[in-house]
Design brief:
Helix content: 25-40%
Protein name: S-ribonuclease
GO molecular function: ribonuclease T2 activity; RNA binding
Keywords: Glycoprotein, Hydrolase, Lyase, Nuclease, Signal
Radius of gyration: 20 Å
Order of helices and strands: HEHEHHHHEHEEEE
Strand content: 15-25%
Bound molecules: guanosine-5'-monophosphate
Structural class: alpha+beta
Largest sheet: 7 strands, mixed
Shape: globular
Number of domains: 1
CATH class: Alpha Beta
Number of helices: 7
CATH superfamily: Ribonuclease T2-like
Organism: Prunus mume (Japanese apricot)
CATH topology: Ribonuclease Rh, Chain A
CATH architecture: Alpha-Beta Complex
Number of strands: 7
Distance between the termini: 64 Å
Family: Belongs to the RNase T2 family.
Length: 226
Amino acid sequence: MTTLKSSTALLVLAFAFFFCFIMSTTGSYVYFQFVQQWPPTTCRFSSKPSNQQRRLQIFTIHGLWPSNYSNPRMPSNCTGSQFNFTKVYPQLRSKLKKSWPDVESGNDTRFWESEWNKHGTCSEEKLNQMQYFERSHEMWNFHNITKILENASIVPSATQKWSYSDIVSAIKARTQTTPSLRCKRDKKTQLLHLHEVVLCYEYNALKQIDCNRTATCGNQQAIWFQ
Ligand code: 5GP
């Protein structure tokens, strides 16, 4: 009897693992996180030699990530088509060089390739490669986060700091939906730095929806934007 019980439990466990694995690799997602990064923060915390030639002071695309509420990092690395550079047409390529540069090492194509392979493949049921990059550029163009913050007097500063809600409210006032923020903590000073702004979109990547708050910006702690 005990053997039967434990083998049933084992079977259920194995099935659960198998189900989770399938869910994470077949591109089953609920919504999109459109993640834009603040390049100076990326470079400040990067272990890679950051691209100093392009000291960008605008939010640029990190990625368009099909996500699940139970685990926003999933799905990833799905079994879709591999990145094909010729599918990103010359006109789109020049737009992406502005909106989606590789701020860490300057190899834009390789950055697009890794984002497509890790995230884009999981939403291929909805957006093919061309549409995935085209739509990401449109999202970036539609809400200019740098300008939105600037208009709310939230600009890079060595002395002034903001609360999570100061930054979120400024963006929400323009986009009518709640963004989420991602921060990096300086291990030496313990200060929090604004790293990324996330806008969320429903399954079709057309309509914007509210994002859930992520934990990386702490609770109630001041945020530096430099
Ligand atoms: P994800 O792979 O989940 O899209 O994002 C995490 C990875 O993206 C990290 O390894 C981070 O170093 C990388 N990343 C963030 N921004 C850039 C960038 O501008 N260029 C490159 N090459 N990698 C980046």
